[in-house]
């Protein structure tokens, strides 16, 4: 268990609810990552008692005072055992039941909350920072809608049979993706235009600053989202599988195939590596072309490009498609760690 938090100055939590993965990190030292996937949980049976694996989470949630109790399989457990697997599809993620399930699970796993009904005092509810794709963040209705939803979120949450805790947030701040990752850049140059490209599951976000005499200015025309990300690689694998077999390939199986390069179907191993490598190159090129086109005439005058997001690990060719590009340390965690810096300021 995490140490009890009694100092409001350090009460801060950042959660990056992505279309692919949910990442959470807190100033209490908690850190967790899992696929942004849920499935309704049935009643535990004998096989659940036999299964001692550490895969995924079984989450029980009760919102408000008299709200219904929901029980979900979350993350890898949903992928492996869920019968009605649910993914994020819409831009208004918080309107999907899966959003609160993954967010509350991540919160419960990374903070030492008061026990539900325990009346424990001296434990600070943390400030929360979450992100939105740049273009969605620009939409005030969506930004404020998410903020209002999270500010009103009060729930009792139990993970893997542990005692329920009471989750609520003292303050909520919504930050643009990519801009969050920018806060983790370790070696900004002293001058010039510097850009960051954040490749996610469904979108790729761009942010840029211009540094003059040590002062930073946001280059708004270079801050935008494009609707291309790692989901395109999954779709390419599914299309190739259908071409070879005539059968559909479930999304979760497609993700596993991206990692392994092959899969077994009706007793026969199907080599998907050539199709995966071809799709990687095509998707990287499409992302680079759209981002560079969005930068317009400024593209040739960018001094440094930083690459972030879990997608850059699957698209190594991207580094050669942008001028003076470098992959950030822990690129999949860049937004969450940047959000935590914002959260630290809120907590202060």
Automatic annotation (TrEMBL):
<dbReference type="InterPro" id="IPR040607">
    <property type="entry name" value="ALP_N"/>
</dbReference>
<feature type="domain" description="Actin homologue MreB-like C-terminal">
    <location>
        <begin position="196"/>
        <end position="316"/>
    </location>
</feature>
<dbReference type="Pfam" id="PF21522">
    <property type="entry name" value="MreB-like_C"/>
</dbReference>
<dbReference type="InterPro" id="IPR049067">
    <property type="entry name" value="MreB-like_C"/>
</dbReference>
<protein>
    <submittedName>
        <fullName>Uncharacterized protein</fullName>
    </submittedName>
</protein>
<dbReference type="Pfam" id="PF17989">
    <property type="entry name" value="ALP_N"/>
</dbReference>
<feature type="domain" description="Actin-like protein N-terminal">
    <location>
        <begin position="14"/>
        <end position="180"/>
    </location>
</feature>
<dbReference type="InterPro" id="IPR043129">
    <property type="entry name" value="ATPase_NBD"/>
</dbReference>
């Amino acid at each position: 268990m995490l140490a009890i938090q009694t100092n409001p100055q350090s009460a801060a939590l950042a959660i990056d609810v992505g279309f692919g993965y949910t990442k959470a990190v807190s100033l209490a030292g908690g850190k967790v990552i899992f696929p942004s996937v849920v499935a309704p949980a049935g009643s535990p049976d004998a096989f659940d008692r036999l299964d001692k694996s550490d895969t995924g989470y079984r989450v029980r949630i009760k919102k408000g005072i008299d709200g219904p109790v929901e029980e979900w399989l979350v993350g890898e457990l949903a992928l492996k055992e869920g019968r009605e697997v649910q993914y994020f599809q819409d831009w208004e993620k918080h309107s999907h039941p899966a959003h609160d399930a993954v967010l509350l699970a991540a919160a419960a796993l990374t903070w030492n909350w008061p026990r539900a009904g325990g009346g424990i005092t001296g434990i600070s509810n943390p400030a929360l920072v979450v992100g939105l794709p740049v273009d969605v963040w620009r939409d005030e209705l969506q930004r404020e809608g998410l903020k209002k939803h999270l500010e009103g979120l009060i729930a009792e949450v139990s993970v893997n049979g542990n005692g329920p805790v009471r989750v609520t947030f003292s303050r909520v701040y919504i930050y643009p993706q990519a801009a969050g990752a920018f806060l983790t850049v370790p070696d900004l140059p002293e001058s010039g235009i510097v850009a960051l490209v954040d490749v996610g599951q469904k979108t790729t976000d761009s942010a840029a600053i211009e540094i003059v005499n040590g002062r930073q200015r946001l280059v708004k025309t270079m801050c935008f989202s494009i609707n291309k990300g790692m989901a395109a690689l999954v779709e390419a694998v599914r299309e190739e599988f259908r071409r070879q077999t005539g059968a559909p390939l479930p999304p979760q199986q497609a993700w596993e195939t991206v990692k392994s390069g092959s899969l077994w179907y009706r007793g026969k191993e199907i080599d998907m590596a050539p199709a995966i490598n071809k799709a990687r190159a095509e998707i990287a090129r499409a992302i680079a072309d759209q981002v560079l086109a969005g930068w317009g005439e400024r593209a040739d005058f960018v001094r440094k490009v930083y690459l972030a997001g879990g997608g850059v690990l699957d698209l190594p060719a991207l580094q050669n498609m942008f001028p003076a590009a470098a992959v950030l340390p822990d690129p999949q965690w860049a937004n969450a760690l940047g959000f935590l810096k914002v959260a630290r300021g809120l907590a202060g």
